[in-house]
Amino acid sequence: MSFSNESFLQNYLETQVQTGMLVVDGRAGNGQKTRFLASHVGKDGMVLSFHEDREEANKTAASLFMAGLQDRVTVENGVLSTDGLQKELGRLTKVDLIILDYTKAEKVNQHTINAESETAWSFLKDDGQLIVLVQPSDHLAALQKAIEADFEGTFSTATFSAKDGSTLLFEKEKSKD
């Protein structure tokens, strides 16, 4: 048996996603993670699912409807952005968990990852988690450091790497106000 980044993420989410959570699938792709998250947040939770491609957004919406999960998810056609998050959440609502999955992206540069991570970070509540999935890279430490440079406040971090990619985990620590 070999380690897999996808298996790690699945196991991690099974233990972390709880009923009633507000979760963002910031790069939903085919919506597979969105469906999983919707089934775990329960009827009192909510998932925001952002899709770069309108066709993928429509497929995800149809799949959620067929599974009876459509009331737990808002499917957004467009990339994760401050405007998109504010439109759905308002200015005061904070999120428990945000996932940014770049493992299937054909054209993603470090600037995009940094910008979307920074946007996501500002919407996380204290003790909220940001999960960034990236393709296999020799520059993982540099990427992690670049992402962290945009974060305000204190945080904890962990990394899991396998042949199929890496998972960067960031947890926002409580403010000491």
Q: Which sheet architecture does the biggest sheet show? A: 7 strands, mixed
State the share of residues found in helices, binned by percent: 25-40%
- Mean pLDDT comes to 92
pLDDT under 50 segments (min length 5)? Answer: none
The gross shape turns out to be globular
User: Helical stretch count?
Assistant: 6
Give the spatial strand order of the biggest sheet.
3-2-1-4-5-7-6
The CATH architecture name reads: 3-Layer(aba) Sandwich
The tally of strands reads: 7
Protein name: Methyltransferase domain-containing protein
Task: Describe what is shown at a glance.
With 177 residues, the protein is of the alpha/beta class. It has one domain: 3-Layer(aba) Sandwich (Rossmann fold), CATH 3.40.50.150. It has 6 helices and 7 strands.
Give structural notes.
This protein has 177 residues and is of the alpha/beta class. It has one domain: Vaccinia Virus protein VP39 (Rossmann fold), CATH 3.40.50. 37% of the residues lie in helices and 28% in strands. It is built from six helices and seven strands. It has helices at 5-16, 32-41, 54-67, 82-89, 110-122, 140-148, and strands spanning 22-25, 46-51, 73-77, 95-101, 124-134, 155-162, 165-172. Strands 3-2-1-4-5-7-6 form a seven-stranded mixed sheet, sandwiched between helices. Strand 2, helix 3 and strand 3 (73-77) form a beta-alpha-beta unit. The chain is globular. The chain starts with a helix and ends in a 5-residue tail after the last strand. This is Methyltransferase domain-containing protein.
